[in-house]
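In this supplementary section we document a worked example of the pipeline. Step one takes a protein sequence of length 603 as its only input; no multiple sequence alignment statistics are reported here. Step two produces a three-dimensional model, which step three serialises into structure tokens for compact storage. The input and output of this example are shown verbatim.
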Amino acid sequence: MTTSATPIEQSTATQSTLRSRISYVLSCAVLVGGITTVLVAAHLVVVSYSSLPHWDIWDTELDFAVHGGSQDRAHWLWKQENQHRLVIPKLFLLADLRWFHATQTFLLVSIFVIQLLHLALLSWSVRALGGWRGTLWRVATGLAAFCLFCPSQWENFVWGFQTCFVMPPLFCTVSAVGLLLYWRSSAAGRSVLAYLVLTIAAALGATYSLSNGNLLWPLLVGAALMLRLDRRALLSLIGSGTLSTVVYLHHYTRPRGIISALQSPLQLLSYITAYFGSCWISFPGVSPFPSAPGVLTAAEFIGSLGLVVSIALLLRIPHYIRRAQAFPLQLELMLLFCVGTGIITAVGRRGFGTGQSFSSHYQTIALLFWWCMALLLLHELLSSTAKLGSDALVFAEGAFLCIMLAAAFFAARPIRRARVRGLNLNVAAAALITGVPDQAQLAWAYPPRPNYVLSFVPTLRAERLSAFSDVRASLLGQRLESVFTPVPASRCSGRVETVNAVSDAVSPSIRITGWAWDFERNRMPAEIVASTDGIITGIGAVGAFRPDVPHAHPEVSSNYSGFRGYSRDVYDRRRTGIYAILDRSTRVACFLGTADGLEFLPN
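The serialised model returned by step three reads:
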């Protein structure tokens, strides 16, 4: 005889079904949000691209290109850069130099692929070590995609040198996963040596990618002791870590300021807390650092809260070991690596002020820190009673989705900063190609010493490297009509707005600004060229932030329609015409105006 369910049981079952459906929908939304973040990051890379290097690459890759004949390659690979041994990142730089003409394309694609590999590994570990499937897997994977590709870390996606920043977190995850797989195989009575080799190899990779990679050795040895791994594993980790550290410190020069930083613990703590709290704060403008004191205070508060919670979670490590829970242990190891990286960064950079902790390339580590902590908290909630766990999951999914929506609302700010830098690098490239030494513009390529960039031009031109590998470098001196097909001015809209003399140039040279728009394709032109008496005498880049143009000209649908460029040998402004190149493949040129009739402003 069967009994029908009571009204209370029926209501409970209905609520459970409804909760499951809501959870499923929310988890799918979180996963879609993560995938969308990846696509936004890809868009950011494309629209901000410049073949001209920024800052450190001049000192490493291009310096080797100029002086490579007199340098031993092994010495160059091993040479200390600040406090780092960048052996593996320099291999990427070498590949970009030898096979891709130092155009940064290979480096930027490598950075993106490294992040994709990290995402794949995290997603796999969620399933393999955590046993999370279905809804939980979608939530964890979507959130990982969001954290690894969030536009707030835009510098790491548009700066080719930053392979050194994205590799250590990947190697940290590989080493943690390898160690825990070895632990599980040992517990099952079959120690798989390949997992131990993978752990050590990944730790070596992190060590020789950036200085924070050295943190992995004490973390792995400490984990091996707590997990009570066999003597072979423990001695292998101790021996490898000791040997690696001794080699790393051979002829090592200690960076300045470390002792003074340690003598200011409060300032150090302020930097560390802002380092982890900065990814929650958005501020207007194109400056990479905030100026308002309230912004710093908010970041410090959020970072302090995160560090307190992380310490409480770290106290759970013995519990995870007793219950043989590999996935939360992986998260704990990654969390410790992130915290250690924040401390090392604070010691080395505290002298630049707390605001410097907002540098976007630091947020790769900060966002990974929050991902680890979010999943640890979710694991703890799911380990409670079934009712509380299911309610907590729905709440967590809703919270994650709200965070993604808020990030989407503010995403235009980091994208704008990336595009501003990319445009200014492209304008600096135009200055170098044209031969106009605009010091203010070249500072975007190498801020400490703009003149330093000029010393590379003969080699870049001769070897067709960086910006000189582009077809634009061969345009100067050619007849406009032999390269491009002029079309009626009705095909485009725009105007030349300012003309400035560049006083440091050898011949009469000008800096030109304005805006341009391709009517037919409803987009900004590919580039700008200047022609004097029918001969191409200058080039420029399009993509300057001009939100005023769409307001005055509704047919323009983008805020990035401005252009800036240069022209040399300008003896008579009336004979210098400015053209928008609407499409590089069809080589169509649309006349915008001349340099005549405008105020010829002094530099």
